[in-house]
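Summary for the steering committee. The consortium agreed at its last meeting that each partner would contribute one worked example illustrating the joint modelling workflow. Our contribution is presented below. We chose a case with several input lines so that the handling of multiple components could be demonstrated. No manual editing was applied between input and output; the record is shown as generated.
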Amino acid sequence: MKKIKVSNNVIRRMPRYLRKLEELEAQGIARVSSSELGNLLGLTPSQIRQDFSCFGEFGQQGYGYNVSALKEEIAKILGTDRGYSAVLIGVGNIGRALMDNFCFSAWGCNLLCAFDVNKDIIGGQINGIPIKSMDELPAFLAENKVDLAVLAVPKEFALSVTDALTENGIEAIWNFTNVDIAEPDSPLIVENLHFSDSLLALSYYISEKKDEDAARAARMERQKAVK
Amino acid sequence: MKKIKVSNNVIRRMPRYLRKLEELEAQGIARVSSSELGNLLGLTPSQIRQDFSCFGEFGQQGYGYNVSALKEEIAKILGTDRGYSAVLIGVGNIGRALMDNFCFSAWGCNLLCAFDVNKDIIGGQINGIPIKSMDELPAFLAENKVDLAVLAVPKEFALSVTDALTENGIEAIWNFTNVDIAEPDSPLIVENLHFSDSLLALSYYISEKKDEDAARAARMERQKAVK
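What follows is the complete predicted structure of the assembly.
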């Protein structure tokens, strides 16, 4: 189906489309035009049509999109129908939050098992997911089809655990450690959730707004002074 | 200093530059060229020069960048020297993980206080940060300069808590709820950490690689059959 290598920016928008379409479907809305979808997401209709055209033809000119069909199509593009399996490494606060509250299965991903070094929790389970010892990781990865690992270990173990994972055949990592775990040319697929990058972007946008507000206030002061 | 409205993509790269420069500084490296920095980050030198040019002149042609000076400059652009203050709403797993492990102060942000509805933890503290009742939120926001709120409440409370925050003067939210809390045209500054969007992007890249691998294998099969 995919006709061209799709840009990262387009890929990043696909999950947003999916979430919005799920919302619309839940509201009982059957059809949506690219301009309606654009209004909801703060994108132009042509942007949306262009994004979808990377993956083939979805809509019919003048009729808009069938919400459910488009949702299914995007979910498929994102691979949610492929039955990926995951393991989670590191059952600290973040690992625990993911096991407790994050619905992996809603996104087509099956979280099989978690691993940790803490003897107090090894052998237990959270939300039905067993917690095993890190010593058992190689055998587990040899015996099970595992498509990705969730890395939620403390910073200082990020690189050594990454090595252990790749040596045992893991090709994709969802990285919560805020450490760059792969060189740019590495074949390892890494998706980073760098919390600090996100906070710094927010800090930038706050600063930008404060500067704009200050500039506006200064302008108004000057105008008052002139009068 | 800022000469033009800077694109979102550029803003998103600035924290990555900052992290890499901190790493280089820690390694005792004093100067770095745009091509060296590019190699480390998987970006072209011209991309890097272009990004920096949005904010003025940093390097000297042929001499590269002074690592520490560039780091300071980028930190300033990102607003880490402005002393922003935050409150955190929702001391569940994610909230707790942030209070315990995320070093707000390293990014120039002062986490003043957390709020929750759970009587068992109200009055206590985590990592020196007090936990107060949600009932105390309006008074706290009235009495303290608070620049942003970290939203880590369960999904179903995301919108009502957002309303409570904006009604009490909060203009920026770091959103961990996986709910879209603002319309596209809202003046509220929202930075989302949508875990599921990130997992879906990873799922896409895994699928892309599996498809490429399968296509390559099929090609080789055909070549073998021809021989």
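The radius of gyration of chain B is 23 Å. Chain B has two domains: 8-77, 84-193.
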